[in-house]
Amino acid sequence: MKLAICSAPKGRPREFCVDEALAQALRVFWSKGYEGASLTDLTDAMGITRPSLYAAFGNKEALFRKALDLYEREKLCYMSQALDAPTARDVAERLLRGALEMQASDCEPRGCLRVISSVACGVEAESIRDEVIARRKSSMEALIKRFEQAEEAGELPDHMDAEGLAAYLGALLQGLSLQAGAGASREELERLVETSLAVWPTR
Amino acid sequence: MKLAICSAPKGRPREFCVDEALAQALRVFWSKGYEGASLTDLTDAMGITRPSLYAAFGNKEALFRKALDLYEREKLCYMSQALDAPTARDVAERLLRGALEMQASDCEPRGCLRVISSVACGVEAESIRDEVIARRKSSMEALIKRFEQAEEAGELPDHMDAEGLAAYLGALLQGLSLQAGAGASREELERLVETSLAVWPTR
DNA sequence: CAAGTTTCATAATGATCGGTATATAATCAC
DNA sequence: GTGATTATATACCGATCATTATGAAACTTG
């Protein structure tokens, strides 16, 4: 009994690489947002026709979710890695510098796909918005847990709580992404990061 | 020769109040963004028909600009007032608390119209986006100037520059607006503000 | 009253939106 | 070869987009 894993595909073979097409779709969503990206924008960038897109990815919303998965897997991996840093300050530094490096890249869109997908929008994008907000929430909860550890380890000043510090750092990261998306230079973003690190609270 | 100022209006009188209609339009743009707000959304909220809207405001883009003017005049006035505060720290406190009070209001949309209008978008909204970004830039330049004053007054730590501090505070305010727009509670926003003030750099 | 002017409501414009029906082309198993 | 299956390309679908043409209604002036 043969396993299905190596079964030869039936029918006409696909003429494009799904992963490459998805990467191109990600770039479009990243630079134009979910609503701003039309199917024409997407198919043009992906180099495929509309029926091919629908056959391979379902529909626009499903395509966005797959693109968002790819984005978080490839571009936001520094965020979960940062939590392994030894101190709360090191966590913050890794997050800020990671965001800076990503936003300062010249060959990729500016701004953060999560941030631009979580702002006000028309009705068609509300479920997308809700999902992105939920994903951010779980990221923030992980950050809060990490800062609670630091709190117990006595790293934080007495009057400072883990939730407040996480919301504070999250706001800085969101602002960094917004400013990058609005065209800030690398130097400006560096100044922002250095200032943030300079004021980071130590006990 | 009579002056035109007190001339009686000819023709059929307008049946709606332009200012009230503009205020309603602002609420729609504020909660849905420029692209997310359809003309049907707008005319429904304003209680007028499409031709009336075009006769009174020009077109969708001109209506948005007038709504943005109103927004900055009525909702963002605390920002310019904050610059009069005696110290850099007081400026920051007024800005953060002013943003908090505005975002915590229950009877108005959450988030900041400037922030949601400056993110990635489709082609039709690019000129809007550019204008909003330009307006924010001039606000930031005023903040930088105010912090340069503080720098000369010796208020800032030696290794800290006005531009970096302004970008830093601006990022916090942007993050605050984003989190408010994403549904953060007043308590969460308060914690964010208190943490920001607690870490504010003093010489 | 009638002429002139402006706003009103209705309905239509062409363009674009996301999504598909249809037919053809390329591969498989037999 | 034939039949089944899947991907391709073209063209189309109804819905919605911002904008406007049209004509009746409401007002001022003469």
From TrEMBL, chains A, B:
Residues 38-57 bind DNA. It comes from the Bacteria. Keywords: DNA-binding, Transcription, Transcription regulation. One of its GO terms (molecular function) is DNA binding. It holds the Pfam family TetR_C_13. Gene3D superfamilies: Homeodomain-like (1.10.10.60), Tetracycline Repressor, domain 2 (1.10.357.10). InterPro entries: DNA-bd_HTH_TetR-type_CS (IPR023772), Homeodomain-like_sf (IPR009057), HTH_TetR (IPR001647), Tet_transcr_reg_TetR-rel_C_sf (IPR036271), TetR_C (IPR011075). Residues 15-75 form the HTH tetR-type domain. This is TetR/AcrR family transcriptional regulator. It comes from Sphingomonas naasensis. The lineage of its organism: Bacteria, Pseudomonadati, Pseudomonadota, Alphaproteobacteria, Sphingomonadales.
